[in-house]
Specification:
The chain has 9 helices and 7 strands, in the order ααααβαββαβααββαβ. It is mainly α. It has a domain of 144 residues. The strands form 3 sheets. A 3-stranded antiparallel beta sheet has the order 4-6-5. The longest helix has 28 residues.
Length: 238
């Protein structure tokens, strides 16, 4: 996993013990998409009236026109659902042919671009739609990082998953281990609870080792231990 993703999400935005609901993710996918478009109208208002009023309210006529041009809301909701299904529920649908592989790569890339661009646009311009401020996409950031960590574990341990079957966004170099925070994220539990499980007196001790100055867990051991946690479902690929 690249240092870029770790810097963007793990250290800044993601509390590993937070458990997100699918309905929250789908609502946030809608809000992030609309907020991203509203910020775009503010950045590039065109040659006529501004896309946003002094009070931050977005011109809904222009917003609807842009939405009709992109037709992206349902697509974003669909891939957000797929991302949640993989990250939390461990369900991964393998592409059956080249066309499905291309569609998968495009959809995950679209979600990633939205996640990366929605926060700075919303933070900078604070767009309002029908009187409501668009919230930052914290849940989408969380669930995408969750999916990236699961992919890292699956690349090390799952017999059906390698870089050829994963969407490009989830492909990454692996090291054969996970950090304690990554394990906490997959188990939807606190990092402190994972550290306690690594103590010699723990009933189902999590075996750790040192990688330079960092405490890590080999991927096979991480999977073994996570299978005993209520917040984790092992990946099924079909």
């Amino acid at each position: 996993m690249s240092n870029y993703w770790r810097k963007q999400f793990e250290k800044t935005f993601v509390p590993p013990e937070e458990q997100l609901r699918l309905d929250e993710i789908l609502q946030e996918a809608h809000d992030a998409y609309m907020g991203w478009m509203a910020a775009s109208l503010t950045m590039f208002p065109g040659n006529s009236d501004q896309g946003q009023s002094d009070a931050g309210e977005v011109d809904e006529t222009k917003l609807n026109t842009l939405n009709q041009f992109y037709l992206g809301e349902q697509r974003i909701r669909t891939i957000a659902n797929d991302c949640y299904d993989y990250a939390v529920n461990g369900r991964f649908r393998l592409a059956r042919n080249g066309k499905e592989e291309t569609q998968m790569n495009d959809a995950w890339g679209c979600l990633t671009i939205l996640v990366l661009s929605a926060r700075p646009g919303i933070e900078m311009f604070a767009p309002r739609i029908q009187g409501c401020e668009m919230a930052l996409p914290k849940g989408l950031e969380h669930i995408l990082f969750h999916a990236l960590v699961r992919a890292r574990l699956d690349l090390d341990t799952h017999p059906k998953i390698d870089e050829d079957v994963l969407p490009q966004v989830l492909r990454q170099d692996t090291t054969g281990y996970l950090t304690l925070k990554e394990i906490a994220l997959l188990g939807q539990m606190s990092e402190r609870a994972v550290r306690n499980a690594a103590q010699p007196t723990a009933a189902d001790r999590l075996q750790t080792r040192k990688e330079q100055s960092q405490t890590v867990v080999d991927s096979e051991e991480a999977l073994r231990w996570l299978k005993g946690r209520r917040g984790f479902i092992a990946t099924r690929a079909d």
